Amino acid sequence: MALLAALTAQQTFSAGGDLVLDARSAGLAAAAVALVLRAPFLVVVGAAVAVTAGVRALGW
Question: Which of 27, 47, 56, 58 could form a disulfide with 34 if both were Cys (CB 3.0 to 4.6 A apart)?
């Protein structure tokens, strides 16, 4: 489980060896909130997708 979390963090917060905070991190935060609220898996994925798409649409 720890390895999966580390791989997810690396893929989310790095680009070319640099630390980045972009739409992917917002989507991950939305998924974490949905998990804390004990939402079903499809709702967690949907929240992450919707927030990531919304942030990208806003141009951040």
Answer: 47
**5 closest CA partner among 41, 32, 26:** 32
Instruction: State the pTM of this model.
Output: 0.77
Q: Report the domain count for the chain.
A: 1
What pLDDT shows up at residue 60?
Answer: 75
Show the domain range for 45.
2-58
User: What gap in Å lies between CA 52 and CA 3, rounded to an integer?
Assistant: 24
